[in-house]
């Protein structure tokens, strides 16, 4: 059987709010887990009135805390929007809290991507404990990222 995954935006529906939207995302992940889905990814979108998943790593923690076995991750952290060290620390911590269940999907946004990826790769080497945790537990989406290795 082909494993299926869900990509959620945590949409804020009309008449709702961000809190309710985040609870809906957690319930959706619980239903996905019960139905045999393998992964639940959350998309990162900033400055959008109807999306509650801007702080992706926090939403991932919220969803992972409400599930037991399904892998939970980012459907693309847009690396140029973040400090690479902060992403490494956040996902290293998530991997420690939810061993074997966290996925890190990286993406690009606009220009500056090559320089930022190179800095991100260098950051991993400067923080070996986080690096080891990330690469062994998170299983980042390298096929999409094609991160430059220095």
Textual characterization of the structure:
- The chain is α/β, with parallel strands linked by helices.
- It has one domain: TIM Barrel (Alpha-Beta Barrel).
- It is built from six helices and six strands.
- It has a four-stranded parallel sheet, with helices on one face. A two-stranded parallel ribbon has the order 4-6.
- Strand 2, helix 2 and strand 3 form a beta-alpha-beta unit.
- Helix 1 crosses helix 2 and helix 3 crosses helix 5.
- The protein is globular.
- The C terminus is likely disordered.
> What is the CATH architecture descriptor?
Alpha-Beta Barrel
Characterize the biggest β-sheet: 4 strands, parallel
The N- to C-terminal Cα distance equals 38 Å
pLDDT < 50 runs, ≥5 residues: 126-150
Structural class per helix/strand content? alpha/beta
How many strands appear in the DSSP assignment? 6
CATH topology: TIM Barrel
* Rg over C-alpha atoms, rounded to the nearest angstrom: 15 Å
């Amino acid at each position: 059987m082909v494993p299926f995954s869900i990509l959620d935006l945590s949409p804020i529906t009309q008449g709702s709010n961000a809190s309710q939207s985040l609870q809906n995302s957690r319930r959706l992940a619980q239903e996905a887990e019960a139905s045999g889905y393998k992964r639940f990814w959350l998309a990162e979108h900033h400055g959008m009135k109807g999306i509650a998943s801007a702080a992706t790593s926090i939403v991932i923690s919220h969803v992972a805390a409400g599930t037991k076995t399904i892998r939970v991750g980012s459907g693309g952290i847009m690396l140029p929007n973040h400090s690479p060290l902060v992403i490494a620390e956040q996902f290293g911590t998530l991997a420690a809290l939810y061993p074997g269940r966290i996925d890190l999907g990286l993406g690009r946004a606009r220009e500056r991507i090559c320089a930022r990826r190179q800095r991100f790769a260098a950051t991993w080497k400067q923080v070996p404990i986080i690096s080891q945790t990330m690469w062994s537990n998170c299983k980042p989406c390298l096929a999409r990222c094609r991160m430059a290795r220095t």
